[in-house]
Sequence to fold (542 residues):
Amino acid sequence: MPDSRPSRAAAAPWRALLFVHVVVLACLGLFLAWQLRPVAMHDLQLAEGERLKCVSYAPYRKPGQTPFDETLMISREQIVDDLTALARMTECVRLYSVDQGLDQVPEVAREVGLKVLLGAWIGFDRQRNARELDRAIAIANDNADVVRMLIVGNEVMLRRERSEDELSELIEYAKARTKVPITYADVWEFWLKHESLARAVDRVTVHILPFWEDNPVSVDTALSHVATVFEEVRTHFDKPVMIGETGWPSAGRQREASAPSQVNQARYIREFVHRAHDEGWDYNLIEAIDQPWKRRLEGTVGGYWGVLDVDLKPKFPLAGPVAERKDAGVPAMAAALGALLCVGLPLVVRRGERSPGRLAAAAVIGMVAGLVAVLHWEHAALAYRDAGEWMLLGTVFVVGLLAPLVLIGGATESGIGSGAAAWRAFRKGGAAGLGASGYLGLLRAVLLFAAAIAALLLFADPRYRDFPTLLFLIPALVFGSVGWFRPSRHGVEERVCAAVIAICVVGRWLPEPANPEAIAWLLTGLLLAAPTLRRGAREDEQ
Fold:
């Protein structure tokens, strides 16, 4: 009887590829089904003519608009468009500065029937602070019928840009010169640390943001957390207390139990507004319109706190169920196209290769690649901030897509070559002499290096960075499956990168072990790195 062990050994990687891709395909299918499900929640039914109390307004919704551009002036036409849309849903808008054309807001607000919480931005620059405050005082006095309150500084203590005494002096200065009530706004913990500031203000304005708490709060308990904190703050002061910022993001990185999503944002806003109106809380929601420029400060999640999107369209209804995704047509088409491409590739490139097992594996690999490509595109549209990120991270993703195509098209039986050796061969003789094994080795080396950098950055600075799971999932599935069963040659550099990945993904998962995004990144990183470390250990032993 002929020995079947070689054929079984040759088939092992394809069985592994088929198995892991089927598992991932099932997970992606469940994820899409979860996104499509309509989620029932509290219907917010405001009385006739009743609107939201107040929302934070920043006009920087158009491409290229940012408060960091000191030459930018927001046109009156844009402010009119913005406030006209907001007047349908709120009674008031909160400003954080009077610079860059925002001094026009009170006049426009009067025309559309809105009140204004006017803000003077206070920071490191004393001279700029003085100019900003004097200008805000003048605007407040000239529009006292519209300006409900002047807010002298926003989270200045949190940013440690002025001392408590300096801030008190600025507040007293404004209070002596303005006709409207004065307040200062900061996160609730800093108000409790600096209670003496309350002596200078007419009202205490606190920010209560469950998502950004040091111990993040899930949306299930977010409202009770806000109520508890609000009551605690009110017991500390004998002046009126206002919630100056509260809200929930619709996109971005999950922080432990705090998960950004459109469904969670809709739920939080509905439940909070209902309770606030029932109990007579004075509040301001953050924020009116999505602010993509904030991704520079707070990562992806910072750009998507708006009740309206950048086109001034509501992101969710105030009544009825809400779903994260309207349909799955595009992902389904991408999966089908991916399957056709990966099944057709070996039939075209290697005409004799018609093994049903390999064709089945190719089909499933293509389906997964198509789905991941669409999901990554959707994430990139939210997260990538400039052409540089699109080019760099897009290139990494495309390189990752090449791995299954090279494997299926080449169907190498000789395993994965050393990336360093492949690069030397490429420099000597070009691409012709590499073969599938060499190409895979070169791709793996590039992707291990990119993943090591991404893992290290996320480990060292996790607060505002997204988990890059979608960026490396496809190559992790390929190299993790093939590298475990076929010979894998690599240099010290690849082993170092693999070790960095493994250490960093475990280190990032440990502080938030129940976070699904952290778990997915942990599994992806280990799958990508483990075969290199395993084969390396065996080579050292030989």
